Amino acid sequence: MANIIYHPADQRGHADHGWLNAKHSFSFAGFYDPSKIHFGALRVLNDDIVSEGMGFGKHPHDNMEIITVVLEGALEHKDSMGHTQAILPNEVQVMSAGTGVFHSEYNHNRDQKVNLLQLWIFPNKKNVKPRYDQKLFAPEERINQLQPLVSPIDNEDAGLKIHQDAWIYRTTLQAGKTLEHQLHNENNGVYAFVINGSVDANGQQLNKRDAAGISDTDTLKLAASADSDILLVEVPMLS
Questions:
Q1: Residues of the chain below pLDDT 50
Q2: Is 219 found in the same domain as 146?
Q3: Which pLDDT score is estimated for 196?
Q4: Alpha carbon distance 80, 54 (integer Å)
Q5: Are residues 71 and 169 in the same domain?
Q6: What is this structure's pTM?
């Protein structure tokens, strides 16, 4: 029987800094819950709303795979590798911090908030050369099917590449539709995060911003009772 860890939306960590309204699925900054340190190789899933013209000043990262998904608005990214780019809805950015990188992230607009999801995944290879990539994913290509956003760097699967045997998918599952996903490895689990909607995930009901970490299974079954936007993160379950 699958092991399911339920993370209700209203039990996430919350920090309101005025310019930043942040929800944390896992322990982060001032939020600490010993039962929510990580799910396998998934260390962070933050749901951030950044006010107009505000943002995170230059700060360092190393030995972490960082994935940013913009839901609304635009996020401006600058880094020590020389990149200055805005990330828009339906775009995904990956950054392998590796040996170390500095970057800043700001709301690109002065008349609209930006809502983003940022995920941190532990790498399976340390001290790699830092790298950056960004891609637009057509929303019509995820209707009632899984759209690969991220996959392992040594794998031919579609999506941006990271240094971990992990996959990230997004799907827009219409009401009444079902979907199955076969996990790539018996030692993997999948973290299902509902951006919007209402869905049953292996028997666990999930509504807007709810999540479930599902392991000890080879199949994820989704059934939508309302039009739903879902992010799936398949990761190795670290010992």
A1: none
A2: yes
A3: 98
A4: 20
A5: no
A6: 0.96
